[in-house]
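Ticket reopened. Same input as before:
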Amino acid sequence: MNPNQSSQCWRGCGETMATHSHIFWQCPLLDNFWKSIFTYINKVLNVDLIRDPLIAILGIKPVVIHSRKKMYLLQILLIILHTPRSNIQLLLQDKTDFILYVDQLSYSMAH
Ligand SMILES: [Zn+2]
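Engineering reply: fixed in the latest deploy. New output:
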């Protein structure tokens, strides 16, 4: 990464050679974060996606999603879920609001 900066993981997991892949995907301190994102996505889209950085970070279309509407919804969810927490909190007060918001999105796309 940057030769003028420490290569230690800034999340504090103890990794001394943290790559971009580690920082954004492999860091064990992100396990619950990515697990919760894929739990939401699978629940909302009624699919069974495995955790995959190609989907989560790069936005590559999963092979199990055939509907264009579901793909749009997945992209919207990923954008929302990648939004910094402080911005999300301005829009959504808690998880109930988030689920309601996603339900409304799902309904509007289905009708
Ligand atoms: Zn780490």
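Residues 9, 11, 13, 15, 18, 22, 27, 29 surround zinc ion (CB under 6 Å). The chain has one domain: 30-110. Please confirm and we'll close it.
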